[in-house]
Design brief:
The protein has 299 residues and is an alpha+beta fold. It has a single domain, classed as Carbon-nitrogen hydrolase (Nitrilase/N-carbamoyl-D-aminoacid amidohydrolase, 4-Layer Sandwich). The chain is built from 5 helices and 17 strands. The strands form 4 sheets. Strands 5-4-3-2-1-17 form a 6-stranded mixed beta sheet. A 6-stranded mixed beta sheet has the order 8-9-10-12-15-16, with helices on one face. A hairpin with a 2-residue loop joins strand 6 and strand 7. The longest helix has 23 residues. The chain is globular.
């Protein structure tokens, strides 16, 4: 696919932030309606939050939640492909993928503006923390870090826990990504919020802004809102605050903590080339000295 000319390369991102209920069909309908509104408001690349079809079930290890998984292509991708064709928009949809019997992934489907399924990204880094027991459900991704030429620009997609790893952002940018999208489900343990909450959120935002700086690209992080208690207890209070960072790491737009909303954010893709030329981090990388990055630890 040929790349669009640099002149007039402003595109509008549509980031969908909302709460989720225990009903997958209701959540899908909510997300589709939000995507429709975003498209009508001028969004050209629309991104969902992580695992938008359900509440965040990884708060416990329970085999019943495997029933939430679906094939790709499948019913959700078909609906988003139809929406993409109707409105001429690119869609990034985060889904619980059933690849085969007993083999599941946390996956994002990338759909171009003509409704074609360009490909998928399978989450590479899988956490195992209190109330984030993802290793029970998800096999680590095996497709690597990728980028796709869409109608509106070359994009890369990573998912939530991938946010903390500069290697993933770098390799995706090295594939030519002009925008890094991060569908996300992250929040506070309510009992820890008073003591740690400010620093936790600041770390999350700062690391992603640093990916924009280090790679001279845009970063779009899409997070859910609300308190979810699928197993009782305090649950997780998702902190929302979906945001877009510019090519120098500056915050271009940020959502609220607790409001369902679409962020419609214009970004000028010509600034990627300008930034990378004036801050030539990719040029000055010492690729001859990075061999130890492939090791777990250097003793």
């Amino acid at each position: 696919m040929s790349r669009p000319a640099l002149k007039g390369r402003t595109v509008r991102l549509g980031l969908l932030q909302h709460a989720c209920t225990p009903d997958p069909d209701h959540n899908l309908a909510t997300c589709l309606k939000a995507a429709e509104r975003a498209a009508k408001d001028g969004a050209q690349i629309i991104c969902t939050q992580e695992l938008f079809r359900s509440q965040y079930f990884c708060q416990s290890e329970d085999h019943k939640y495997f029933d939430l998984a679906e094939r790709i292509p499948g019913p959700s991708t078909e609906k988003f492909q139809k929406l993409a064709r109707k409105h001429g928009v690119v869609v990034i949809a985060s889904l619980f993928e059933k690849r085969a019997e007993g083999l599941y992934h946390n996956t994002a489907a990338i759909i171009d503006a003509d409704g074609s399924l360009l490909g998928i990204y399978r989450k590479m880094h899988i956490p195992d923390d209190p109330l984030y027991y993802e290793k029970f459900y998800f096999t680590p991704g095996d497709l690597g870090f990728r980028a796709w030429d869409t109608k509106f620009g070359r994009i890369g997609v990573l998912i939530c826990w991938d946010q903390w790893y500069p290697e993933g952002a770098r390799l995706t940018a090295m594939n030519g990504a002009e925008i890094l999208f991060y569908p996300t489900a992250i929040g506070w343990h309510p009992s820890e919020k008073a003591e740690y909450g400010t620093n936790q959120h600041l770390a999350w935002e700062t690391i992603q802004r640093s990916h924009a700086v280090a790679n001279g690209c845009y970063v779009a992080a899409v997070n859910r809102i609300g308190v979810e208690q699928p197993i009782g207890g305090d649950g997780i209070e998702f902190w929302g605050q979906t945001f877009v960072a510019g090519t120098s790491g500056q915050i271009l737009a940020k959502g609220s903590v607790d409001k369902a909303e679409n962020l419609i954010v214009p970004v000028d893709l010509t600034k990627v080339d300008v930034t990378r030329t004036h801050w030539p981090f990719l040029r000055d990388r010492r690729i001859d000295a990075y061999g130890n990055l492939t090791k777990r630890f250097v003793d």
